[in-house]
């Protein structure tokens, strides 16, 4: 007994001294993801030149007010459109309702900045709408009639609402479909009409899902740069660009970035709070599915139009405008700049997708091994990168990398006499890192959910047969979750292709991607030259939307 008691603590101490490479790797990956956000905090509270009082007295209130109005407007518009469309296609059957359940997701494939360029081109003075009005009524100039201002805060709300309402539609439709049909039958028996059933029964039960979708739309709005820049709406994200690139004040840009991050985290907190306080349970063991009501005549036409309008504005209009310019300027498809931008996009996006998903698999698996409490505790914080807008990550990545890059270049030059140049910021490394941090939450969520569906007995059996932890990951987990891994790769790649603010800030000199090529040409009013790159970006996004729609198959 004495000998056993002596050896047990010795074995325990030996075990504690052994390094756990999985836990160490998980902590290193978590540090990589959280590093840019921590850098923002440090730069904001330790600026080289503190311009916070100047920002507070001049531009920051305007930036914040415009951002809040934009987020509120987009949240209300997205919630209204997405919830209404989800209710109609779930509770009723009318001509086109089945296909519309798919088509209403398609605006997610269109980057919001592409929608902004298309709307301005369609409605501006020289566009087809105003030209047709002048021809029809004989007007000679803009002084002869009134037309709403296109480049305005209201137009930005419309564009972003049209692009982001599918987030609400997707979640609200799932919430409506999960409700019991008997609930609505009781409401109908008590004399509740169609609107009363929606307002008093369906809407309260789906409120957590609607709030979640609206919060996502508002977070994407707070992170947007392309739309607000094109419409000349001064928001917090445009303030980051102007303070850093025009005023050359990285500390001030970090302080504005901290305000953006705080706003986004506030939206995340409000969304989670609304879900926690709004819990509804199905008490019936035999839940009856909803039986859609068939509409005919004028009600069917109105329901079709109400669902078709957001699809038309969010998808048909941008695609139609871009295709008309692309066909009118076929030579733009053969410009060498487009081929280079496509190659850069595929290369950087592909590397970012592989690195992000691999790191997420390593992190989730390392945490699941259960050997490190620190790794388990830090896992939820690695999703903060998705809440950080691209402009915020750009500030948090470029400044620290520039310091490290210059230090290593000076050190190598002093020791060897050879100048290696800027290896980190002078190449696409910073761009790949930004994409990995920004979209790590997507890969992590997919990996965590997929590994959770694998029976623990399978990897345990592999370990009992002599496989190492890495062998169990390669030979058991990866083959079983390869579908989820492929989906995560695609989603990270698509989001990397569409990302604009981080790409503008972190790309090397004269290094264009499809998104920056669209932005550069459109900002110079050269929509025809921007259209091929815009259509390529939309095509990549459409593939992801179709896959997402198939994974959320509609019950017919």
Explain how this protein is built.
The chain is mainly alpha-helical and 556 residues long. It folds into two domains: 259 residues, Orthogonal Bundle (MetI-like fold); 260 residues, MetI-like fold (Orthogonal Bundle), CATH 1.10.3720.10. The protein is 75% helix and 1% strand. It contains 26 helices and two strands. It has a two-stranded parallel ribbon with strand order 1-2. Helix 4 runs antiparallel to helix 10, helix 4 packs antiparallel against helix 12 and helix 25 crosses helix 26. The N terminus is likely disordered.
Poorly predicted residue ranges: 1-19
Looking at CATH, the homologous superfamily of the largest domain is MetI-like
CATH architecture type of the largest domain: Orthogonal Bundle
What is the number of E strands?
2
Quick description:
With 556 residues, the chain is mainly α. It has helices at 2-17, 21-45, 52-57, 60-91, 97-103, 112-123, 128-137, 153-177, 181-189, 194-223, 226-230, 236-246, 250-277, 297-328, 336-368, 373-378, 384-387, 390-416, 429-438, 440-452, 457-464, 469-480, 482-498, 501-506, 514-523, 527-551, and strands at residues 92-93, 293-294. It folds into two domains: 20-50 and 329-556, MetI-like fold (Orthogonal Bundle), CATH 1.10.3720; 65-324, MetI-like fold (Orthogonal Bundle), CATH 1.10.3720.
């Amino acid at each position: 007994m004495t000998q056993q008691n002596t050896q047990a603590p010795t074995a325990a101490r030996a075990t504690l001294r052994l390094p756990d490479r999985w836990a160490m790797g998980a902590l290193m990956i978590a540090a990589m993801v959280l590093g840019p956000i921590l850098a923002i905090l440090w730069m904001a509270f330790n600026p080289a030149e503190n311009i916070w009082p100047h920002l507070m007295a001049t531009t920051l209130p305007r930036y914040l007010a415009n951002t809040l109005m934009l987020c509120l407007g987009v949240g209300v518009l997205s919630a209204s459109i997405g919830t209404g469309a989800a209710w109609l296609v779930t509770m009723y059957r009318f001509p086109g309702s089945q296909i519309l359940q798919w088509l209403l997701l398609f605006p997610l494939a269109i980057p919001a900045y592409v929608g902004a360029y298309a709307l301005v081109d369609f409605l501006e003075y020289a566009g087809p709408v105003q030209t047709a009005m002048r021809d029809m009524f004989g007007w000679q100039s803009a002084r002869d009639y009134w037309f709403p201002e296109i480049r305005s805060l209201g137009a930005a709300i419309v564009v972003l609402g049209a692009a982001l309402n599918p987030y609400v539609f997707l979640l609200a439709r799932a919430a409506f479909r999960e409700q019991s049909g008997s609930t609505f039958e009781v409401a109908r028996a008590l004399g509740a009409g169609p609107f009363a059933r929606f307002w008093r029964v369906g809407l309260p039960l789906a409120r957590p899902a609607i709030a979640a979708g609206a919060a996502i739309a508002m977070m994407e709005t707070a992170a947007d740069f392309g739309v607000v820049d094109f419409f000349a709406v001064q928001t917090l994200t445009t303030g980051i660009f102007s303070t850093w690139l025009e005023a050359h004040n990285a500390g001030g840009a970090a302080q504005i970035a901290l305000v953006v991050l705080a706003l986004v985290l506030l939206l995340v907190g409000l969304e989670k709070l609304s879900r926690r306080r709004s819990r509804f349970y199905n008490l019936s063991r035999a839940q009856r599915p909803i039986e859609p009501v068939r509409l005919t005549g004028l009600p069917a036409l109105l329901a079709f139009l109400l669902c078709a309008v957001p699809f038309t504005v969010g998808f048909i209009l941008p695609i139609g405008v871009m295709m008309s310019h692309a066909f009118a300027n076929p030579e733009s498809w053969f410009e060498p700049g487009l081929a280079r931008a496509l190659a850069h996009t595929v290369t950087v996006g592909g590397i970012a997708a592989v690195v992000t998903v691999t790191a997420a698999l390593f992190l989730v698996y390392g945490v699941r091994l259960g050997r490190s409490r620190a790794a388990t505790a830090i896992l939820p914080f690695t999703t903060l990168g998705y809440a950080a807008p691209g402009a915020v990550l750009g500030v948090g990545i470029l400044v620290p990398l520039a310091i490290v890059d210059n230090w290593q270049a000076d050190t190598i030059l002093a020791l060897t006499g050879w100048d290696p140049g800027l290896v980190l910021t002078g190449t696409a490394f910073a761009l790949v890192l930004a994409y990995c941090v920004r979209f790590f939450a997507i890969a992590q969520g997919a990996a965590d959910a997929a590994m959770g569906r694998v029976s623990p007995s399978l990897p345990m059996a592999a370990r009992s047969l002599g496989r190492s932890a890495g062998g169990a990951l390669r030979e058991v987990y990866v083959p079983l979750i390869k579908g989820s891994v492929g989906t995560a790769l695609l989603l990270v790649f698509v989001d990397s292709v569409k990302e604009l603010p981080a790409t503008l800030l972190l790309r090397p000199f004269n290094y264009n991607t499809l998104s920056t090529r669209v932005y550069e040409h459109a900002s110079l009013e050269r929509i025809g030259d921007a259209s091929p790159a815009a259509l390529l970006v939309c095509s990549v996004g459409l593939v992801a939307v179709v896959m997402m729609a198939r994974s959320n198959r509609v019950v017919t």
